Amino acid sequence: TDRYRAVGFISYAVFLSFVFILNMIEADRGMSFDSADVLQNQIPFCHLVISMILIPVALTNSIIFPGQIIGGFAPISMMIILWLLASVALGKGFCSWGCFYGGWEDGFSRIFKKPRIKNVNIIFRWFSFAVLLLVAISSAMLLSPTYCEWICPFKTVTEFEAVTSVETLIKTIIFLSLFAGLVVILPILTKKRMQCTTLCPLGALNSFTNKINAFDIRIDKEKCTECGKCIRECPTLSLDESSYKTGRVHFTCCKCGKCIDVCPTHAIHYHVKGTPVNKALTVSRNLFVFGGFLFLAVFSGGTFQWGIYKIINLLTTGSY
Questions:
Q1: Hey, how many other C-beta atoms are within 10 angstroms of the C-beta on 247?
Q2: Looking at per-residue confidence, does 72 or 151 come out higher?
Q3: Is the pTM of this model over 0.70?
Q4: Under a CB-based contact definition with an 8 Å cutoff, are residues 206 and 91 in contact?
């Protein structure tokens, strides 16, 4: 499951960034935006902003993001609807099947076969919840998406505020450093998705959607030998020794399927809530995986087709 998911997921992340940047260049904007773009609501909406707009929407009945509600590239309404559908269908599985940022750190985490840093404390899985609380409160107080403005590392592969002052220079240094550290270096060294685990506010919010989602991952305690392989391989620190006793993973699980693939006794599996744990395993797996690949296809949309077209055009004509 994880192997095939990763191929599509990682390719999607790279192609989307490639296509996104080319679209910005074709619009004569490049990767940077200025105050005029903000005033004209021309900034593509990023799903990470969802974690910052909920409180301001409730308090002021307005969306604190300079994007288009309908129309244009990545409008607010479309991105919110897709996120809601994915949350209901997949829970936090959205982070491994639909989030076009997660593919970057997922890809870097697979460069080495074995981790260079082997012991990562599971306390790190709580860091993103602190970030969620911080950015939700600060965004509501300042009526501005603070995570996007100051710390989002994925501005490195999409677009960022033009460096025109000391403040924008500091912002640029911050997001470049976080991208290098949490998306590239630490995933390579630990084989963990460290940005998703420690910094992403939407990842923390999506953890709660695991509670309402129809699927979870369960451990057959009779088959489990407590070898620890699933704990070592879990990219989001969602398994620990308590999982052996409860037969459940932590609610931060992103349902990537890696633990299922590496389990030597096939004790871990996708499970439809409300059904017997050890029954209809193939049906449960097929239902979830179908939904996962369906959403991956929906989110990728024409990204692969458009990206391949651009590459071929660039190679054959010298122009994109």
A1: 17
A2: 151
A3: yes
A4: yes
